[in-house]
Amino acid sequence: MGYKVLFLTLSIANSGLWLRYTTIDSSRTRYSAFWLTHFKPGNPRGFMIKIRDNMSISEDSITLNKQLYSIRDRVSTGGYKGLEWNLRFKGGIEKYNPVPLLYRILRRKSKYVIVNPNTLFNGTVIVNNEEIKVENYRGMIGFISGDKYLDHWIWTHCSSFEEDPEGWIDILVASPDGKRRVLFGLLKYDNKLIHIGKILGVNYIGELSHEKFNANVKVGDYNISIEARALKENMIIAKYEDPANGARYCHNTEIADAVISIEKGELKMKLSCNKRAFYEYALTKVLDESIERIKEITL
Predict the structure, then answer these.
(1) Sign of CA pseudo-dihedral 203, 206, 236, 16
(2) In sequence order, what DSSP letters do the residues of 58-123 get, joined into one string?
(3) How many domains does the chain have?
(4) Dihedral (C-alpha) 1, 184, 44, 167: value to the nearest 10 degrees?
(5) What is the pLDDT of residues 252-282, one digit of tens each?
(6) Sign of dihedral through CA atoms 167, 170, 117, 132?
(7) Fewest CB atoms within 10 A around its CB: which of 37, 105, 138, 208?
(8) How confident is the model at residue 92 (pLDDT cuts 50, 70, 90)?
């Protein structure tokens, strides 16, 4: 009982794609779905295709109608009536789990794994019969599962910085119960991996918004500042049905801006991700009715 998600997010400046494979199984509802969303300035478009066929999802593969599609085969394909994708990408060497050790114990039924945080995508995607040529898009592959969703969360990710193509960041502010807010994540730069909030997470007191996010954290000798900004005209709202109760409304874009500042002694460094950062704010209500919604198609 619960939900499972395998997702791919990829972008270049001012063009982003979000693909999602989902299963949900509960006393309230049961279905499988493919999601495909294209982001370009002022015109995001997204579709969710609910299917009757049985689909199972793991960190490395999708099984549909007893046929196995492996993420390790480095190909993702699918489609339905003007919505198609055929993508090639490099397989991940190492998986990452940014969740603090405490919350892995407290929420044993929940899981978030970064299957590949920074890889190149190439291929073709068709959205509403418009062909998008994917040439050296940078992005990530992730897996999520659980018996219920968090009350609300903010997530931002950047695969590759302008100053460090092999670097990346994955940051979450998560609220399990609607009261506490815990910040945690991973930052890789200059071949160094920094685990933020590794054991307990970091208490977050700042404001949360679907258009901006700021945080300042200290990890050992490092002082790290994180800033992300998104334009609502570049966002789309996805409705996640919760296996336990209600729904979460995810305000999402793949063409946001992010800047990370790092200080350690005399070291001062800035890492930027312009017009291609992934950003989402999910909660139990819609914040702005003017934002485009993902269209649902049921087969």
Answers:
(1) negative
(2) -SSEEEETTEEEEGGGTEEEEESSS-EEEEEEPPPSS-B--S-HHHHHHTTT-EEEEEEEEEEEEE
(3) 1
(4) -120
(5) 999 999 999 999 999 999 999 999 999 999 9
(6) negative
(7) 105
(8) low
Residue bearing tokens 């966002």:
235
Q: 157 and 168 in contact (C-beta within 8 Å)?
A: yes
Range of the domain at 293: 2-298
Tokens of 201: 């997470």
What's the token pair of residue 13? 């400046």
Single out the residue of 254, 34, 50, 62 nearest to residue 155, CA to CA: 254
201: Cβ–Cβ under 8 A, 6 or more apart, which residues? 100, 102, 103, 182, 183, 184
Helices (H) and strands (E) in the chain, counts: 1, 23
Is the pTM for the entire model greater than 0.85?
Answer: yes
* Other CB atoms within 10 A of residue 25 CB: 14
Measured at the alpha carbon of residue 175, what is the angle toward residues 174 and 177, in degrees to the nearest 5? 155
Q: How far apart are CA 57 and CA 17, in angstroms?
A: 20
8 Å CB contact between 247 and 284: yes
Flag whether pLDDT at 22 surpasses 80.
yes
Tokens of 144: 């999520």
Q: What sign does the dihedral 38-277-14-167 (CA atoms) show? A: negative
User: Does residue 134 sit in helix, strand or coil?
Assistant: strand
Q: How far apart are CA 148 and CA 109, in angstroms?
A: 9
Q: How many residues does the chain have?
A: 299
294: its two tokens: 């993902």
